[in-house]
């Protein structure tokens, strides 16, 4: 009976820890924003959170009319040719829909990722189809959508992962997705 109660308490504490971890603002210093080719971009831009962290799978609409949805992370083992080498990767389907009145330039998309507060790098693994934003020069016309898949290097064990997305380096508002990966 005492063992069952201890397990219940430990389980509840673990869930509480996950909930609290997503509610704590991420450390933005030293976190590289990933532009279209996965290179550092917009590193000096300040961050104004969109209010609170979203769970993977939720939609967020920016004032410009751009709506972003990030699917739940899918764990995978990077191939030997992947860069950077990592014991595990987390891949995300990202859907961008332009419901605004102007054309959205996909090349402006910045994505920042952290695992338990530490910056993580984007994985390029062409063997498995993780090539980053391949259509970076693509313009997304009003009323149109684009789907991309991004992958990041994560530790072997489950971790708390945060993705911060900014539609452009000059955008003052960023949305943060948070959850276990």
Account of the protein in words:
- By secondary structure, the chain is mainly β.
- It has a single domain, classed as Immunoglobulin-like (Sandwich).
- Helices cover 12% and strands 35% of the residues.
- It is built from one helix and 13 strands; from the N terminus they run αβββββββββββββ.
- The chain has one helix spanning 2-23, and strands at 48-49, 54-55, 59-61, 66-70, 74-76, 88-98, 104-105, 110-115, 118-119, 139-140, 145-154, 160-166, 173-180.
- Strands 1, 2, 8, 9, 12 and 13 form a six-stranded mixed beta sheet that branches.
- It is globular.
- It starts with a helix and ends with a strand.
- Mean pLDDT is 78; it is low at 2-21 and 23-51.
List the helices and strands and how they pair.
Elements: H1 2-23, E1 48-49, E2 54-55, E3 59-61, E4 66-70, E5 74-76, E6 88-98, E7 104-105, E8 110-115, E9 118-119, E10 139-140, E11 145-154, E12 160-166, E13 173-180
Parallel strand pairs: 1-13, 2-13
Antiparallel strand pairs: 3-4, 4-6, 5-6, 6-11, 7-10, 8-9, 8-12, 12-13
Share of helix, binned: 10-25%
Number of strands: 13
Radius of gyration: 17 Å
CATH-assigned fold name: Immunoglobulin-like
CATH class: Mainly Beta
Distance between the termini: 32 Å
Amount of beta strand: 25-35%
